[in-house]
Amino acid sequence: MSVVLRGKIWIECINYQGNVNFAHYSGYVDVNKDKALFYWFFEAVENPSSKPLLLWLNGGPGCSSIAYGESEEIGPFHIRPDGKTLYQNPYSWNQVANGLFLDSPVGVGFSYSNKSEDLLNNGDASTAEDSLAFLSNWLERFPQYKGREFYLSGESYAGHYVPQLAEAIVKQAGDKSINLKGYTVGNAVTDDYHDDLGIIQFMWSTGLISDQTHKLLNAYCDSESSTHPSSECNKILDVADKENGNIDAYSIYTPSCTATGSRLSLNHLRRRFHESINLKANKRGASNLDVQVGGWTQGYEGLTFVSVRGAGHEVPLHKPKLALTLVKAFLSGSAMPSLSVQHADP
Asked: How far is CA 235 from CA 150, 199, 229, 230, in A?
């Protein structure tokens, strides 16, 4: 059921059997007269008034932050394999922050526009503009978060969304309600060419392709853009794809499907969510997982790069405890810690 409280939507998840010790809200925020963006907001488990505000954006483009970020990565409620019921995520990021999940741009998840041309003309610049408008209007609904320490986070194609939204916020210097302190992006997509440079070597070094295919890829695809490869490169890429087989490209060392089971009905979800529808650098150091290396960190002036051992593309999905530890350090402005957990821990 959904109950309107002072313009906010509080959601009681009918299929969650358990106690919820934090407030959460959901609804639409108008960007303009035609566009509305959907959100799900979770206050921190303890002392929300003292915790920062953190916005999460998934990538794609086209991936819902509700379906991915909230439901299988960093949100409080995750979907069981039956596709019908929920359970609480013990490593939810609302343990350390007030978490805001946004379906963006319009056309993603439950976010919509009344003009079809808006869906055809979506781009990174308009996405940043709309997300900034969303934030400004959302803060009018939740004025207690105006001026609160604010962080942006996301993954994958949010390597575009997050820094461009950060730039838009910084350029809007007169608005003091958004107190941006920093951002973090996991496995960020920033530039196709540079992102793809190491893929050929990676596939070969991990045994996903044969020596012959490796040689042909280097011969025909090494300087190609993955967005517009030549016909010769495409042919070899098809061979490489067949050699890869039924492997999850987003996490090659895990089973090809995490099996969330039968998908939740879109209409069922709608009813549940909303009835009305020059740098200084330090030495590279290890983060220790008990007696094993859990990952590596490299710090620069204002920038830290972290790798997590054994994680796939969605780090919080595969290594939730480590991800929570890292974001906690990020939000506190402290150095990435040495991680010490039991071998069986996720």
From this structure: 47, 16, 10, 9
- The β-bridge relationship of strands 86-88 and 77-79 is antiparallel
Query: CB neighbours of 158 closer than 8 A, spacing ≥ 6?
Result: 57, 58, 59, 185, 188, 189
Collect all residues with Cβ–Cβ distance below 8 Å to 334 and sequence separation of at least 6: none
CB 134 within 8 A of CB 83: no
Taking only the tens place, the pLDDT of each residue in 84-127 is: 888 999 999 999 999 999 999 999 999 999 998 888 888 999 99
pLDDT tens-digit readout, 165-203:
999 999 987 778 899 999 999 988 888 777 777 788 888
Residue 11 and residue 86: Cα distance in Å, rounded? 13
**DSSP one-letter string for 244-286:** H-S--TT-TTS-S-----SPPPHHHHHHHH-TT----B---EE
* Bridge partner residues of 180 (DSSP): 150
**What residues pair up with 292 in beta bridges, in sequence order?**
289
A 10 A CB-CB count for 67 gives 20
Nearest to 188 by CA among 27, 23, 307: 307
CA 36 – CA 130 distance, rounded (Å):
9
CA atoms of 57 and 44, how far apart (whole Å)? 18
**Domains in the chain, CATH or no CATH each:** 2-190 (3.40.50.1820), 194-244 (no CATH), 285-332 (3.40.50.11320)
Query: What does the alpha-carbon distance between residue 50 and residue 44 come to, in Å, rounded to a whole number?
Result: 9
Q: What is the mean pLDDT of the chain?
A: 82
CA 247 to chain CA centroid, Å, is 22
